[in-house]
């Protein structure tokens, strides 16, 4: 059979040839089969992480249970819950060495048996019970704070992935035993899938939008990389001699396994050794995280956290749980004892100061049977060198670890490159990538709806300058044909917009004809069958009667216009896609996107836009407005493009406003108001027709001192003054510019 390779020629990008691998590398590992969709699970992890971080447990639960970014096929999504549900546990996970070490199982027999005698007594669906209870605030989490629940979800889903990776590894070994080694459907394909799931896809721009150093990809592999930064590197990120660089080591083990699963180099005993080495790296990560956070939670300021912190308590427990069974099998009683020491149902403030040393002493007993020692684990650089635990068990030096197969590359394969599937559109809360609002109608959107909808969108782009515009036709688009909108193609439609005697007139024709008008720019639009493609406002007409060629009466349109940041499903952000703070918005309940928008419109001077996701509504009041977004399935972010904008001058914080230079200051430049909060100061500015900006300090009066700057040429400079904030002001135009 011909192999496939990339070739740059004029008429084709992929042609059959001998040699070559068209599959995109995942780190140093290049799959020889299509595992794109498994890697996409990392994007679900990021979505759940973001939702949980904002205590949006409903949104996080939806992604966990329904899936979002990883497709099984063109119509079905893969969910994280499906990896560890009760059905999956009983039908697929039970009998695996890694899984059975957690659930008191026998594991496989023969050469791939569980190496040690220890077992934990956890129930088969322990991971699903843990995550689901944290999401719902039930069971063991019924009396836990939202902070504890958040951490349990964010770190627990990494344990879910680790567990399912182990299942894929052991499935690959079982296929190899049967000599099923096809690149596309045999042991090698499943081994590739395990690495793809563990390493994860990197979404668009993810490396530029890291949460912290080394935390960009949101995958279980990246958690190893983070702990490498604590234990295998020092404060200046230099390598510490003798420590394990687990993120590289585990990758080399996966590469060794990839070679051992190929038909020409099939080696089942090697695969079993590699499996155990990979599980050893899972254990290294759990041990390092547990040592780090057990110290921080009640010793802690070396990690810049407050002591007795429940956030750290839950991190210590959850990270350890991910490998507790494999540690238990190596040294019976060790995993169980550490879980008891870290039990998250304890009151964090009552955990004894001996916790870290108690945990460390227990783990030392597991080092030798795991083939580890203290030097290989390393000392967390954030724990002071002067801090010592007394009476630790003797920890013998372990032999050097196997290297794996660094640099191995699978250059040839019979499988063609795959492509990302699209199975997510059915869950979208936005009707199409170009839409601003979902329809309020319960009627299913037809192709004709989409046609007129797109024609009206065109009107938004071409509206003129409003009052003072010259009467006449401003734009006409004849015969827009076959423009693609999602999966629906347009047929003919025609559009023109006119300004006539102080009124907008927008005409759209396809098989329908209708008219809308108003003195303000078009901000909501109507489809060709009378359905409003945005929330009803004054002058709306009866949907049932204005059909098929009938002209509705003119509609007065609202002045506010909400627009998406990119037109995709996304969450709102400040200056960048990672700029998010609870101070930027007010969290309110809303049953629909339209209700959320109404809540925004009820604060016209302050609301810069809103974010909505399944009953959760953020009213954004950040003075600088919404300037960026973060792609997130199930979320809508809409900016009020007519909202006034306050911009910090020279950073804003600890700056006092000045005129042309930093020394140009005069009482004639501003009006002074006392007893105003920053927000009230902004409101006062917006009520002042000549306002160019504000200066505010909370140290005066009951709430603060407010200067409303009215200097004709505005605030041109600032001076450093502690406790002051200087912001320039620019009102949004009432109409967009003439195109």
TrEMBL record:
Native source organism of the sequence: Polarella glacialis
Keywords recorded for this protein, A-Z: Signal
InterPro entries given in the database record: HCR1, Pan_app
Origin superkingdom: Eukaryota
Signal peptide boundaries: 1-19
Pfam families to which the protein is assigned, alphabetical: Fea1 (PF07692)
Protein name: Apple domain-containing protein
Record carries keyword Ion transport: no
Phylogenetic classification of the source organism: Eukaryota, Sar, Alveolata, Dinophyceae, Suessiales
Record's keyword annotation contains Signal: yes
All copies of domain Apple, residue ranges: 572-637
């Amino acid at each position: 059979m011909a192999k496939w390779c990339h070739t740059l020629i004029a008429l084709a990008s992929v042609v059959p040839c001998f040699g070559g691998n068209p599959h995109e590398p995942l780190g140093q590992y290049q799959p020889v089969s299509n595992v794109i969709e498994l890697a996409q699970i990392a994007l679900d992890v990021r979505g759940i992480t973001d939702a949980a971080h904002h205590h949006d447990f409903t949104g996080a639960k939806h992604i966990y249970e329904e899936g979002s970014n990883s497709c099984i096929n063109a119509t079905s999504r893969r969910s994280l819950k499906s990896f560890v549900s009760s059905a999956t546990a009983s039908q697929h996970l039970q009998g695996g060495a890694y899984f059975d070490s957690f659930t008191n199982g026998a594991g496989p027999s023969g050469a791939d048996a569980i190496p040690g005698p220890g077992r934990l007594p956890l129930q088969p669906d322990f991971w699903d019970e843990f995550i689901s209870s944290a999401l719902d605030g039930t069971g063991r989490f019924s009396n836990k704070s939202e902070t504890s629940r958040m951490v349990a979800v964010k770190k627990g889903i990494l344990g879910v992935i680790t567990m399912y990776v182990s299942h894929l590894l052991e499935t690959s070994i079982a296929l190899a035993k049967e000599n099923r080694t096809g690149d596309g459907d045999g042991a090698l394909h499943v081994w590739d899938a395990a690495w793809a799931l563990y390493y994860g896809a990197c979404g668009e721009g993810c490396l530029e939008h890291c949460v912290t150093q080394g935390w960009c990809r949101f995958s279980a592999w990246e958690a190893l990389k983070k702990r490498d930064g604590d234990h295998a590197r020092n404060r200046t990120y230099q390598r510490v001699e003798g420590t394990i660089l687990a993120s590289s080591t585990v990758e080399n083990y996966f590469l060794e396994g990839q070679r051992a699963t190929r038909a020409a180099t099939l080696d089942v005993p090697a695969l079993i050794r590699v499996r155990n080495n990979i599980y050893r790296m899972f254990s290294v990560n759990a041990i390092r995280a547990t040592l780090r956070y057990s110290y921080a939670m009640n010793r802690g300021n070396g990690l810049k956290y407050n002591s007795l912190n429940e956030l750290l308590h839950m991190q210590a427990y959850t990270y350890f749980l991910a490998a507790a069974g494999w540690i238990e099998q190596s040294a019976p009683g060790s995993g169980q004892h550490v879980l008891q020491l870290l039990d998250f149902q304890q009151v964090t403030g009552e955990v004894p100061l001996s916790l870290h040393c108690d945990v460390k002493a227990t783990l030392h007993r597991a080092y030798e049977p795991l083939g580890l020692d203290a030097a290989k684990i390393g000392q967390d650089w954030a724990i002071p060198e002067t801090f010592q635990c007394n009476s630790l068990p003797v920890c013998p030096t372990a032999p050097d670890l196997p290297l794996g197969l660094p640099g191995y590359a699978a250059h040839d394969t019979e499988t063609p490159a795959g492509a990302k599937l699209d199975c997510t559109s059915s869950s979208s809360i936005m009707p199409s990538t170009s839409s601003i609002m979902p329809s309020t109608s319960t009627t299913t959107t037809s192709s004709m709806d989409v046609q007129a909808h797109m024609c009206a969108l065109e009107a938004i782009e071409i509206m003129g300058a409003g009052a003072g515009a010259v009467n006449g036709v401003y734009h006409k688009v004849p015969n827009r044909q076959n423009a693609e909108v999602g999966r629906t193609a347009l047929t003919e439609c025609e559009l023109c917009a006119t300004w006539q005697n102080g009124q907008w007139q927008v005409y759209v024709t396809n098989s329908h004809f209708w008219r809308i008008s108003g003195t303000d720019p078009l901000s909501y639009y109507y489809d060709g069958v009378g359905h409003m493609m945005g929330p009803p406002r004054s002058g709306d007409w009866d949907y049932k009667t204005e059909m098929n060629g009938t002209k509705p009466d003119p509609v007065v349109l609202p002045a506010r216009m909400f627009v998406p940041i990119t037109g995709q499903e996304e969450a709102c952000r400040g200056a960048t896609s990672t700029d998010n703070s609870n101070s930027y918005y007010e969290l309110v309940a809303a049953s629909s996107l339209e209700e959320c928008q109404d809540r925004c419109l009820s604060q016209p001077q302050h609301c810069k836009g809103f974010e909505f996701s399944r009953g959760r509504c953020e009213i954004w009041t950040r003075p600088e407005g919404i300037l960026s977004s973060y792609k997130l399935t199930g979320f809508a972010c809409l900016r009020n493009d007519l909202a006034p904008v306050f911009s910090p001058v020279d950073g804003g914080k600890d700056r006092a406003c000045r005129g042309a230079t930093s020394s140009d200051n005069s009482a004639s430049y501003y009006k002074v108001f006392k007893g105003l909060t920053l927000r009230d100061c902004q409101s006062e500015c917006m009520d002042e027709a000549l306002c160019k900006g504000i200066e505010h300090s909370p140290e005066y009066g009951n709430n603060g001192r407010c200067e409303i700057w009215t200097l004709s040429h505005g605030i041109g400079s600032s001076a450093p003054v502690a406790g002051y904030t200087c912001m320039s002001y620019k009102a949004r135009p009432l109409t967009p510019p003439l195109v």
